[in-house]
């Protein structure tokens, strides 16, 4: 699918999402980005995208609510004309020890990390299916999951339950939406160290990867560009971007 003249909708994504928005804009795509609490960061990216000569909007939405997901898609179509690509990136990630778990922890993770992407994907796919078929396709969806869904670590039980559901959703959606909408997942390990990690913790993570490095936003962005603009013969797949961490340190 050539991205020039298409509309790419990205949910959340202050770091990888920002770089992806700029990357698809350089290929001529218009961009819609949603925000829930990170208005300043998302609007700053949208301003940069507009500077590349394409159209871009920022839309406030609580994607845990189906009506907001539907409104996000509707506003994108109203302002930019279509939704040709959805990239589900909005997520929460916070540790909870097993002995401290409450029902609220489960509910929060399911709402943000599974229900939100589900509602948005359903709304976007329904819109895509009203659009013309071009070169065999009406659209593409990418869900961001997690490399450790199949090798979970402690203190993130609700998170991995939700992200595991998102991986299953990718495969199920690929079947539901074939042959005109391709659906895939990207499962990164650490992409740039988040605030709060010590140098020792970062080095421990680096050593846990066979490639002995920490990922960058560009590692995930380049894979996303391949799935969007580089190949139309992939659906239902999950790609780990983890430096081989899934394999262990060796």
Q: What is the structure about, briefly put?
A:
The protein has 250 residues and is an alpha/beta fold. 43% of the residues lie in helices and 15% in strands. It contains 7 helices and 7 strands.
Question: What does this protein look like?
Answer:
This protein has 250 residues and is an alpha/beta fold. The chain has one domain (7-247): Rossmann fold, CATH 3.40.50.720. 43% of the residues lie in helices and 15% in strands.
Major pleated sheet: 7 strands, parallel
Instruction: Trace the largest sheet across and list its strands.
Output: 3-2-1-4-5-6-7
Query: Outline, from the CA principal axes?
Result: globular
The percent range for strand residues is: 15-25%
How many structural units, i.e. domains? 1
Task: Flag low-confidence runs.
Answer: none
- Contiguous helical run count: 7
* E-strand count: 7
End-to-end CA span: 38 Å
User: Rg, please?
Assistant: 18 Å
Question: What series of H and E elements makes up the topology?
Answer: EHEHEHEHEHEHHE
Query: What is the mean predicted local confidence, pLDDT?
Result: 94
Computed structural class: alpha/beta
Annotated CATH topology = Rossmann fold
- The CATH homologous superfamily corresponds to NAD(P)-binding Rossmann-like Domain
């Amino acid at each position: 699918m050539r991205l020039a003249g298409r509309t790419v909708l990205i949910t959340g994504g202050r770091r990888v999402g920002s770089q992806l928005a700029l990357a698809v804009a350089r290929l001529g795509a218009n961009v819609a980005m949603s925000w829930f609490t990170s208005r300043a960061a998302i609007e700053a990216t949208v301003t940069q995208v507009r500077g590349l000569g394409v159209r871009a909007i920022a839309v406030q939405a609580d994607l845990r609510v189906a009506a907001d997901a539907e409104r996000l898609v509707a506003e994108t179509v109203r302002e930019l004309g279509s939704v040709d690509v959805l990239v589900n990136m909005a997520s929460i990630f916070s540790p909870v020890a097993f002995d401290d778990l409450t029902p609220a922890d489960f509910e929060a993770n399911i709402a943000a990390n599974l229900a939100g992407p589900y509602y948005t994907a359903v709304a976007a796919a329904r819109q895509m299916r009203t659009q013309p078929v071009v070169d065999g396709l009406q659209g593409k969806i990418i869900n961001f999951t997690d490399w450790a869904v199949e090798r979970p670590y402690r203190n993130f039980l609700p998170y991995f339950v939700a992200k595991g559901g998102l991986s299953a959703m990718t495969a199920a959606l690929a079947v539901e939406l074939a042959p005109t909408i391709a659906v895939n997942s990207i499962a990164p390990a650490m992409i740039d160290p988040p605030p709060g990690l010590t140098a020792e913790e970062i080095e421990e993570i680096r050593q846990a990867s066979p490639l002995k490095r920490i990922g960058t936003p560009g590692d995930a962005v380049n894979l996303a560009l391949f799935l969007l603009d580089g190949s139309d013969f992939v659906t239902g797949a999950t790609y780990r971007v983890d430096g081989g961490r899934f394999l262990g340190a060796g």
